[in-house]
Design goal:
CATH superfamily of the largest domain: Aconitase, domain 4
CATH class of the largest domain: Alpha Beta
Structural class: alpha/beta
Number of helices: 9
Number of domains: 2
Largest sheet: 7 strands, mixed
C-alpha cells in the first residue's frame, strides 16, 4: 500500500448525505476480483442520465472537477453494504482523501486498508469546504496526516481526529499483509520449532 503523509489536490463537492456503497459502485460491477478498473464505474448511475449518456450536471462530469483527488461530501458516507469495491472504485478514480462529517464504520476501515484517508470534520467546516469548492475555480486543499490538519491557501484550517494505529499504518504504507510480514522473522522462527509430525499432519489436512 502506498504511504500517505500529505496530499494537496483539487476538491470535488458532493453535497449529499447517506450515500451508500451501491451508489458508489453498483452491484453489477462487482464481478471482477482485481482492485483496478472500477474507477470508470464510480457513481455510475448518477454520472449517466436516463438515456445512458453522461449527465453534465453531475459533479464528476463537470470539466472544472476533472482530476479531483479530494472528495468532500455529506454525513454517513459509505453506508449500506460492506463491499470493499467502494474504496477500490474511489481510489482507482483518483481520490486520495474523503472529507465528511461522518462515515459508515466498515467503509472507513476499508478506506484505510486501501490507502484512502477518511477525514471527519464538523458539519459546519464540511459545508464551508463544499461552498468554497463550488464557488472557487480550481479549489484545492492539503490533507496532512502527520499534523492531522486540512488547509487551503485562503485561510481555512481545521484539525481532525485520527486513530494512532491507523495513522501509523497509512504513514508507513502498511496493509494487513505488510503488518504481518513485519513479524516474518518471528513467524519463521516459530514454524521452525514446530514438531515435524504436526506440520506433516497439517499439510495433509489442507489437501
Amino acid at each position: 500500500m502506498k504511504a500517505f503523509r500529505t496530499h494537496t489536490g483539487l476538491v470535488a463537492p458532493l453535497d449529499q448525505s447517506n450515500i451508500d456503497t451501491d451508489q458508489i459502485i453498483p452491484k453489477q460491477f462487482l464481478k471482477r476480483i482485481e482492485r483496478t478498473g472500477f474507477g470508470e464505474f464510480l457513481f455510475y448511475d448518477w454520472r449517466r442520465g436516463a438515456d445512458d449518456k453522461p449527465d453534465r450536471d453531475f459533479v464528476l462530469n463537470q470539466p472544472r472537477y476533472k482530476r479531483a483527488s479530494v472528495l468532500v461530501t455529506g454525513r454517513n458516507f459509505g453506508c449500506g453494504s460492506s463491499r470493499e469495491h467502494a474504496p477500490w472504485a474511489l481510489a482507482d478514480y483518483g481520490f486520495c482523501a474523503i472529507i465528511a462529517a461522518s462515515f459508515a464504520d466498515i467503509f472507513a476501515n476499508n478506506c484505510i486498508k486501501n490507502g484512502i484517508v477518511p477525514v471527519v470534520l464538523p458539519e459546519a467546516e464540511v459545508q464551508e469546504l463544499i461552498k468554497r469548492a463550488k464557488e472557487l475555480p480550481g479549489y484545492s486543499v492539503t490533507v496532512d496526516l502527520e499534523s492531522r490538519t486540512v488547509k487551503d491557501d485562503g485561510g481555512f484550517s481545521a484539525s481532525f481526529p485520527f486513530d494512532d494505529f491507523h495513522r501509523y499504518c497509512l504513514l508507513e504504507g502498511l496493509d494487513d499483509i505488510a503488518l504481518s510480514l513485519q513479524q516474518e522473522a518471528a513467524i519463521t522462527a516459530y514454524e521452525s520449532r514446530r514438531p515435524q509430525w504436526r506440520m506433516t499432519h497439517q499439510a495433509s489436512f489442507q489437501k
